[in-house]
Here is the input.
Amino acid sequence: MSGSVTYGFIGLGNMGGPMAANLSAFLAADGQPPLVAFDTAGTAERAPKGAVCTADAAAVAQQADLVFLSLPDGPVVRAVAEAVARTPARRAAAAVDLSTVGIDAARDLDALLRGQGMAFADCPVSGGRIGARNATIALMWAGPADLLEAHRPALESFAGNIFHVGPEPGQGQALKLLNNFLSATITAATAEALLFGLTQGLDLKTMLDAVNVSSGGSNAGRDKFVRRVLTGTFDSGFDTALMAKDMHLFAESLREAHSPEVFTGTTEALWQNFCDAMPSSDHMEIYKYIRDRNPHPAGPAEEDES
Ligand code: NAD
Here is the structure.
């Protein structure tokens, strides 16, 4: 993009915090204006060094040309987007939503922001907190290609893979939700499989070593189970409530589309029940939930004598 651009960032949590830090470092190194940041839970503690900390979303909209959002869910993003769009003397001409909000919510945001004369991209991310820290996350950009190209250097400062998945807001969400459905299903299936192995006297590390170079290996097995389950830390930085939200959004969209359904209901119910039982857990605690919900039987089931 020609001329200097001021970027804003609202939501500095597990994902937004490290994304904003990478963007801020890029802007400083490139001699561009500092990032303008806001988070309701406390901006000063969460904003990267060198960022301008503001008191609310409206202040970001007044100071930044383009505002990134990394917020928990659709209703929060909607409220913040309304505040941004309706800010008096607004400078922001575009918003890029990096959150997972669902297909309908992304379309509503597009209508809201375009109605107020702003450009919008639905751009959910994948790769977790570690990927955000290492700037290796994937961006699933749905929206105007010229907006993407105009801001590509800034996007590349915090993402390793950028996919322009389509022109229509909602398409990014569709891809993100189907990705998370795969991730949620494979993560739960891996936990179930490993717990079975334990009943056969197999060692957890040995199972992961073998499965991870065999046909049952997956990103969940190679990354999340090795780093978060084997170590006993269960600290991936992705809350169970967010995964349960994503599964609900995926199931709703799949059914609305009359797309074939085999596993979706099971995955959706499992993550909702897990979330109800352990509401403030990390999503990798699914391993503990499955283990404790179905304790290993002491032996073969007793014959029914009736
Ligand atoms: P998080 O809860 O860690 O961070 C959200 C941040 O938004 C918090 O710091 C919170 O204080 C702030 N916030 C909430 N309401 C606000 C408001 N009205 N104004 C300003 N700030 C507000 O969540 P996260 O894990 O960073 O996830 C953010 C989004 O990215 C979610 O939609 C999530 O589904 C998605 N996501 C998360 C991961 C992950 O691994 N954590 C990966 C991919 C996508």
